[in-house]
Automatic annotation (TrEMBL):
Transmembrane helix recorded as keyword: yes
SUPFAM superfamilies associated with the record: Periplasmic binding protein-like II
Source organism (scientific name): Nocardia aurantiaca
PANTHER family referenced in this protein's UniProt entry, alphabetically: PERIPLASMIC PHOSPHATE BINDING COMPONENT OF PHOSPHATE ABC TRANSPORTER, PHOSPHATE-BINDING PROTEIN PSTS
Positions of transmembrane segments: 6-30, 203-222
Protein name (record): Phosphate-binding protein
Top-level taxonomy: Bacteria, Bacillati, Actinomycetota, Actinomycetes, Mycobacteriales
Domain PBP: 228-480
Length: 509
């Protein structure tokens, strides 16, 4: 039953039922249909008199012509109509061929004392309603029912005629029982035509059925969304890159809206430390994933990568340096110690303070690969950023910080400082100022046309293949194929599947 396509079945039912209802109503039973509508049924109070003597007795189609005893009377007007989609011939009435009568109009607890045919939609129908054609009235005294017999009148689609009857009560009191038409059609039916005012019960039932189908589909759609999100119960610990931590945290929060069965723990302290932890601890623990800025280094043969997104990085400076743009060459010279004062690149008279991420940082490795290159000389020996702030040496100084948050705070607080960070974090931070590289800002299009150099690929690493029903596998599916892609995109990252070369998650065309 797990793989049973219930949503598809419901969709088919939702389409088929209205079609079948239409076919049943208008093709099968509704193809030939006579309707009758009681347009007036009202008692007559007081004594009846006619302005023209003899008119009321003449309503009675047979008898000796004597005026009837007109007491406790009622007047009824009934409309008989062809409301099907085809014409009705005399041979369509389901009564013996030898019988001229096709319809029987019954009036319980009343007898007919007078009747007349009125309002013919087609004068030709009058020939079928002449005396001798089967029209007449009678009384079923045993059951106290007055009856008007009507002939087998041929009626084109939309034709109608009316019967006006004067009736006298024979039993009971209060309201009269409703008139009833007794008849059958071959391949059709005779039914009372309800007023068009208001909503048909059948229509309401059909609407209710369709609403129920839509509601069930909606519920299953929610369940499908949950299944798409994974909804695997268990615990998932995420470690690694502090640069990508905000995006992963937000993605996990969104995942939790669809699946509350997964418990998340976050222990981000650097890409290298995350990789080491997964390598050492997760051989028998599929609930541990490392997020890394860039590919793993040597020494992790058991770790399997999965590309997540292309991430943008940016250079940041203390606002006091007075610089808004740097070339790649200038950045290399600054980190090599060849530029020792911001005046040399158009800034203020301040010594340069170079802030680096600690060894093992994925962001630092991305900076080295994309901005410095392999020919860059070794970075001068670093000291403490606090020491630099306290001593304020006149020469350029170098220090290191462990995580992204420390990088952003140090550059914001330390005069003359320069550093680097994941772009979305830097854009939201206060104090540190982003700078363009050779006039180009961090943007997806700038990377795709190879004008912006500072970017990297975010990876998720597991120790060996993940079981399909593990929390880690479910969360990775959410990040790469589900709503998680939108979360990554909202942080300025480009999901790998949206790049020209998604297999390597590279902007190369």
């Amino acid at each position: 039953m797990k793989d049973f396509p219930l949503d598809t079945v419901l969709a088919i039912i939702g389409i088929a039922v209205p079609i079948l209802a239409f076919v049943w109503e208008f093709v099968l039973v509704g193809r030939k249909r006579l309707g009758y509508r009681v347009q007036m049924d009202t008692p007559v109070t007081g004594e009846i008199e006619s302005v023209f003597p003899g008119v009321l007795p003449q309503l009675r189609p047979e008898g000796d012509g004597a005026a009837p005893d007109l007491q406790d009377l009622s007047v009824v007007l009934v409309r008989i109509e062809n409301n099907g989609i085809t014409d009705v011939d005399s041979s369509d009435y389901a009564s013996p061929d030898t019988d001229n009568v096709g319809l029987h109009l019954h009036f319980p607890h009343r007898r007919v004392i007078g009747m007349a045919v009125t309002e013919l939609s087609d004068d030709a129908m009058g020939d079928s309603l002449e005396p001798g054609t089967g029209i007449g009235c009678r009384e079923d005294a045993q059951h106290r029912v007055g009856i008007i017999d009507l002939p087998k009148v041929p009626m084109d689609r939309g034709d109608h005629y009316k019967i006006l009857a004067i009736l006298q009560r024979t039993a009971g009191a209060g309201e009269y029982p409703a008139p009833v038409m007794r008849a059958k059609l071959k391949g059709g039916r005779v039914a009372e035509t309800r007023s068009r005012i208001g909503t048909s019960p059948r229509l309401l039932a059909l609407i209710g059925f369709l609403v129920a189908v839509i509601a069930v589909q909606f519920v299953f759609g929610l369940n499908d969304d949950k299944n798409a999100a994974g909804c695997v119960s268990g615990k998932l610990t995420l470690v690694g890159s502090t640069a990508f931590e905000p995006a992963i945290r937000d993605a996990a929060a969104e995942y939790g809206k669809h699946c509350a069965k997964t418990q998340f723990d976050f222990e981000f302290d650097s890409s290298d430390r995350g990789l080491s932890r997964v390598d050492e601890e997760s051989k028998d623990n599929p609930g541990l994933l490392a997020i890394s800025d860039g590919p793993k280094g040597v020494g992790y043969p058991n770790l399997i990568p999965r590309t997540l997104a292309m991430s943008l990085f940016t250079m940041i400076v203390n606002p006091g340096v007075g610089v808004h743009d740097l070339s790649t060459r200038q950045i290399r010279d600054i980190y090599a110690g060849r530029i020792d004062n911001w005046q040399l690149v158009g800034g203020t008279d301040l010594p340069v303070r170079v802030v680096n991420r600690a060894l093992g940082s994925g962001t630092r490795e991305a900076f080295r690969q994309r901005m410095l290159g392999d020919d860059q000389p070794l970075t001068p020996v670093a000291t403490s950023c606090r020491t630099i702030a306290a001593t304020n040496p006149p020469s350029p100084a170098f220090c290191e910080v462990p995580v992204t948050a420390d990088m952003l705070k140090t550059v914001a607080d330390l005069p003359g400082s320069i550093g680097y960070s994941e772009y979305s974090d830097a854009a939201k931070a206060s104090g540190a100022q982003t700078v363009t590289i050779a006039g180009h800002a961090p943007a997806r299009d700038q990377v795709l046309d190879h004008t912006y150099p500072f970017w990297s690929v975010e990876y998720a690493y597991s120790n060996g293949e993940l079981p399909a029903d593990s929390p880690a596998a479910a969360f990775l599916r959410f990040l790469t194929d589900g709503i998680g892609k939108d979360v990554l995109r909202s942080h300025g990252n480009t999901p790998c599947g949206e790049l020209p070369n998604p297999t390597t998650c590279s902007p190369d065309k």
